Amino acid sequence: MNHAGELISAYLDGELSRSEVEGLFGHLGSCGKCSAEMEALQSVRSAVRSLPQLDLPPGLIPEADAEVIPLHRNRGFLVGAAAAVVALVIAVAAIFTPSAATISVEELNSRYGARASLDPAFGPAKVVVPYVVNLPE
Amino acid sequence: MRRTLALVVVVVMVPSATALGTDLDELLDESREASYTAEQVISCSTPEGVRDAVVELTQSGGELHVAAPADPDVEIASGFGGWSLVREGSVVSSTNVQGTDETPEPRYTVDDGAETEYLGRPATSYRMTGEGVVRAELVVDAEIGALLKVVTFVENGDLYCERRFIAFDPEPPTFSQSSTGSDVEFSVSVVDSDLPASLAGFERLDVYEDDEGFVFAYYSDGFFSFAVFETPAVVVLGEGSVATFAGRPYARSFSPGQVTLVWETLEGGMALVGDLPPDMHQEVLEGLPPPQDPGLFRRLWRNLFG
């Protein structure tokens, strides 16, 4: 391998196979020039990636503006989906959470029994049974 | 001619006077005042099957204590507008109400009665009739006026419930202390209501609203009675079946001598508790708000904000 300039670029772009990477690194160990080029390219890429991202002024590049619209759509969809999930969680919680105002049949019996004790027919004809005792067959 | 007319008048008037028979209220009043200890069997034929129970009754001075022999630690004490569930001597649930003095118009008549014998004691057997239908047979102790046996019927003459004493001691019992009216958990008072003033021959005698904010009205036809409840939330009926009246579903459960019907409306829950025979259910329910599905959002709102 004489000079591995194209292979270095391909490696940094993640386009080499495993055997090609092994071959490249074998060459870098014995070639100071290629090794120095590898370091230089890595430094440049890192520097570019560390630069802040700036929004372009609207209308400067029409193609860039066209790309912005789908991004807004995605954000709206996500916000809507999040709101729907929150609403669903509240609904499910409300439906399956017992209401504080529930009343049992025993409480109804208590009220009916109290008022029935003032009834003219109160007595053996209006006995409220505390619980069921099945008679033998 | 005049003699013939007079004879006709006499013939017509005699059965009419006889038909007046015994006053039902007098019979019931006498039974309320009786003091005794008894064992009673309750057996009811309901659309859900037979409901039976054996209970021990102790009645004195207008107060009635009910216990089941299988569990002597539990007792229900009631009388004078009070109802208490007592477990091992402690009141675990109780209600007190103040009723009005209103009484329903007489719906039933009682015949003159026939002498009989019950549990070896002289007694009188009466038939209670309403609108041409025999609704009950009452066997009354000749000495103290206690209702020894009460059999109620549905419209076609089939038996609904039989309550009969199988043991009877007319000696006045003594209660260690009055269990009614103590440790009151709920106190209800008379209020106005939109619930119907009459339902299928039953008159609304009074209406109550308790601290929890739900309303109940008491209806009577002079013998059978029921309470209608309007609650902010749906009543949970543990057991029972679905009964359909006028094409609408109701949750229904029978216990010995009593029926409970539960349904949901747009505003909340409703329930009916009483001793009226099954053939009266539909006509009564037709006069009340019908079951309605409030839908997801109304139910959601009710659960969240009451």
Element string of chain A (H = helix, E = strand): HHHHEH
Biggest interface, chains and residues, is: A-B, 41 and 95 residues
Determine the oligomeric state from the structure: heterodimer
Backbone CA Rg of chain A: 40 Å
Strand tally of chain A: 1
Q: Biggest sheet of chain A, open or closed, and with what strands and sense?
A: none
Assign the CATH topology of the largest domain in chain B: outer membrane lipoprotein receptor (LolB), chain A
Main sheet specs of chain B: 13 strands, mixed
Strand content of chain B: over 45%
Uncertain residue segments of chain B = 4-19, 180-184
Terminal CA distance of chain A reads 103 Å
Number of strands of chain B: 23
Note the gap between the termini of chain B: 77 Å
If you average the pLDDT of chain B, what whole number results? 85
- Level of helix content of chain A? 55-70%
Run of helices and strands of chain B: HHEEEEEEEEEEEEEEEEEEEEEEEHH
Given helix and strand content, the structural type of chain B is: alpha+beta
Tally the helices of chain A: what do you get?
Answer: 5
Low-confidence stretches of chain A: 132-137
